[in-house]
Batch of 3 targets.
Target 1
Amino acid sequence: MKIYFPQWQGAGIGKGIEAGAKAVLEYLENLQFKNIPLSELPAGKNGEQKYHINNYPAIYEQLARFNHFLGKEQPHTIQTIGGDCGLEIVPVSYLNKKYPNLGVIWFDAHADINRPCDSTSCNFHGMPLRTLLGEGEPKMNPLLHSFINPSQIHYVGLRDIDKAEQERLDKDAIYHPRTLDIEDLISTLSRKRITHLYLHFDFDCLAPTEYPETYYQVPEGITIKESITAIKVLQENFKVVGSSVLESITTQRKELNPITPIIDLLMK
């Protein structure tokens, strides 16, 4: 099932995220994408913070919508155009329940594994993996279909890690190499007997010199060529049941051009 869910509230102000998601949707020209409506509750500059989470009421309302939709439709696969990384708690937890041997590949410059109380920004897009582990804000748990375990998480392009996040990564030796080694990643997944994958792709995993039109720009990162190769190898060796493209902010077709091969691989 193809989903369009341009959630931006998880990024606080979220400037450019909704428009960027729409640009990706328009590029694909695919009418099969189902739209998950956003909340009309105040957010951004007028948003309400609850439980150390900015825009909490709006985020909860629209994620509950997404959660209900998947529960009703019961898709076997999910491809999502977003939106900020916080939306991932719904499709990942849904597919994890359906496929118990699911591996989560997190293409991202950021670890996204903060607890709300540890977050300096209080933006939910830095918290989805901690929430999926069942260690986030308890009031978010009803939005989850299941919890994942630390051994399911595998990072690609990670390089901006908060102190509390590093402690969490180290605690369970969560897979987070400094550089991409696709052979090592494949070997690790195979050793864990993982057969199905969810590919989360935040475009800030890419080096800004390769693609700068992201919500955050973090120096260094992987190249577009490396990411394409990695995705293809993962698709060839495992059953990809879910994927996402997130946090691109450009509305200009010309600026979008460098990443369209990635979008094509993950969304078509």
Target 2
Amino acid sequence: MKGNKVVFPESITDDLHHCFKCGMCQQVCPTFKVTRQEYYAPRGRVQIVKHYLEGDLELTPTLEHILMSCMLCDACAALCPSGVRVDRLFRNMRVELDKYTTKKLGKKLVFAILRNGERLRKASRLARIGQKFLVDTLGTNSKMGNIPLARLPRITSESFRQKVPEKITPEGKRSGRVIYFTGCATDLIYDDVGHAVLRILGRLGMEIVIPRDQVCCSAPLFLSGAVKASLPNIFKNLDILDRVDADAIVVDCATCGAALKKGIPELLEDLGLDTERARRVAKKVKDVSQIVSERLDELPIQENLSGEPLAVTYHDPCHLVRGMGVAADPRKILSRISGIKLVEMEGSSECCGGGGYYQFDNVDISAGITSRKKRNIMATGAHIVATGCPGCRLTLRGNISEDENIEVLHTMQLLSRSLTNKRT
């Protein structure tokens, strides 16, 4: 099948002709750094898309693999001197691929689960049983992608949103009201992050609303090209989040934040749909580190009495540093925690190789990207890696062995640990 009849948004199609093939994108592309092949570089992929849209290329499994092997880390778009929106170009191309290619059974199943909140909770319970049986009973050495099953995070027995009140009022004077969009990972896997966020925002006097009926942000769906499948979740969340009585919409997941802040408004625009509500929501979306860093002086951070500070390095999630433009805030928080010495790693803003489902679909390329990130972490001598993305946390922890003794935590967990019990 050739691409003659493909219709992209005109502004995105124009970008195809703005690429001057300068090659600067190669400097930052994680897949090119691993493969050293031109067709795995952004400018190579841009030319493939251009020739496909002009009808010169057939849609083949090889073409699909090359285009789907992009990490969508947005590093190339951020650097491009010609302003080519490579991220949007490739996302639109994935919509085309989704129309005419057959998805693997595993991915189809994951997508079907993510489209329904109740289905997701039931699937997580089944997965938890399977996880306990395979790891605890059989002691299997099997892997998912590059990660041993024993190194995957444990699914919680009860979802975070079911364990906490839908509305949490501060003990003292209220300083504001926020909606907490927990995302799927905090709700079903990393509830430790959720509790840390609640503790910190509570100490800042925030009233916290946690809508129970929020659903997956749909980034895994629309970033894979399954745009139509993503729209019901998107519209449901917009219904829930578009409130005038909230000062901010707080996220602790970089992917959810980038989806709500940037991805969804752009998606609706590319589809020719009304973006007004999505842009209202986007204006209120903030990563929790942004809110906390602004009011860091109000938190009772305990002094270090143990002597030698603990070395901590920070990994910038792609969706946080480029999707939301957040880099300084987490570092400001870490630098203020007593007992911690922040050690910058080389290539801190480079992709970790996870990319959600990517690491299970593109095992070899993912392994190469992750090994590069791991070397940079190890070179710092850090005992803890802080990050603001559950996907990065899963990837990094899964690829760091027990004997390497490096903990991977959310920045809010480290901050929560450092707070005294004193009320301000």
Target 3
Amino acid sequence: MSRDILVVYKKNFEEVHDRSLDEVRQVLDDLVGERGLNVGYTARETVRRADFVELDLVIVLGGDGTLTSIAHSVDENTPVMGVNSHPRVEGNGGSYGFFMGSDPSTFSEDVRSALDGDAIVNVLPRLQAEIETTSGNVIRSDPALNDLLIANTHQYQPSKYRLQRGEIDSMQHSSGCLFSTFVGQGAWFRHVADIEGAEFAPSEIDDHYLYVARDLPRADRAGDGSYWEWASEPTVITSDMHRGYVVSDGWDETHFTRGATLTVGLNGPKLSLLTFRGAILDGVSHWLS
């Protein structure tokens, strides 16, 4: 039976990315002959959600930003393989590629492992916001692998909202609320909140997320979880902003207006991310208790 594969690549006319695409294409051309694969190629800028229907494997060629922008459109049943098109070595300014389990030098071996079912399957939770408008319509934001921001669309104005989670019920004026998955905390969250030294129980990382009210006035930074928390219960935010937005992983925006209710939790579709020489959690084991 043939296997359907889609390669989504970063296209910015830099030679290093073009060269990596050529190397990946050569390997896959050989596999088409060996295994009868059906392989398609599309640039990140032109991809649509419909392109990911009924695929056996998605290969993302680029860096972490390319993968997070593409992963929004991939459901939890489709394995994703990240290939770092510009691996960082000293002085070359490449991509660290935390989520990228492969690179052109190992791709031939790795893609065969993926096709043979021998890869490490990392099932990663994702954040999602459900927005209920004042007219009763329900909209879901894109799922976020790293982080999700809720804020005033006018960044020079404060974000005004009611915050509810468990026993917490408070009105806040901040520069917005930032949520992070466990693995995503190094992308942005730790630059916003000082949680150095905090450790997390391995049993909690699939059902807990991090929350912080950005730039909340110092006097309002209570220790009751209304400022920052490692939370399991959903966070409910009622907007008192003329216009606000939800931004998932720094990509697509979902807008809302005053009176909208947003419920945030780890209820987004999970992502099945393949790695080959170690699990994703190995790279953040120093945060685990």
